[in-house]
C-alpha cells in the first residue's frame, strides 16, 4: 500500500510504458478478488460489485497510511490495524 500510494499514484507518468491501467497493480487486484470471492462463498461477505468493495478496502487502508505519513496520527500504523479491519469488515459483511 505504501508503494502504491507514494510511488505509483504520485508518479504515474514514470510508469506509462508497460504499466497502463491495472498492469502494475494486477497482483493486488487479483488477491483482493480472491479474498472477496472466498468471503462470499463462506457467506461472511455479501456478494457485491467488485470495484466498490475494492474501493472500500483500499480507501480505508490508503486513508490511514496517508494520515500516518502526514504525521496526523498519535500512534503507529499497527495500532490502527484492528480498527481499520473491523470497519472494512462491517462495511462488506453479509
Give an account of the 3D structure.
The protein has four helices and no strands. By secondary structure, the protein is mainly α. The two termini are 26 Å apart.
Helix fraction bin: 55-70%
Order of helices and strands: HHHH
- Domain tally: 1
* N-to-C span: 26 Å
Any descriptors?
4 helices, 94 residues, mainly alpha
Question: Could you outline the blueprint of secondary structure elements for this entry?
Answer:
Blueprint: H1 2-9, H2 26-41, H3 50-69, H4 77-92
Helix pairs in contact: 3-4
TL;DR?
The protein is mostly helical and 94 residues long.
Amino acid at each position: 500500500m505504501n508503494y502504491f500510494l507514494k510511488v505509483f499514484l504520485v508518479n504515474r507518468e514514470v510508469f506509462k510504458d508497460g504499466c497502463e491501467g491495472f498492469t502494475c497493480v494486477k497482483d493486488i487486484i487479483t488477491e483482493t478478488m480472491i479474498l472477496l470471492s472466498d468471503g462470499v462463498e463462506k457467506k461472511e461477505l455479501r456478494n457485491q460489485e467488485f470495484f466498490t468493495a475494492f474501493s472500500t478496502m483500499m480507501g480505508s487502508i490508503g486513508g490511514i497510511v496517508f494520515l500516518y505519513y502526514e504525521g496526523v496520527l498519535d500512534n503507529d500504523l499497527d495500532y490502527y490495524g484492528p480498527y481499520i479491519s473491523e470497519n472494512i469488515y462491517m462495511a462488506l459483511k453479509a
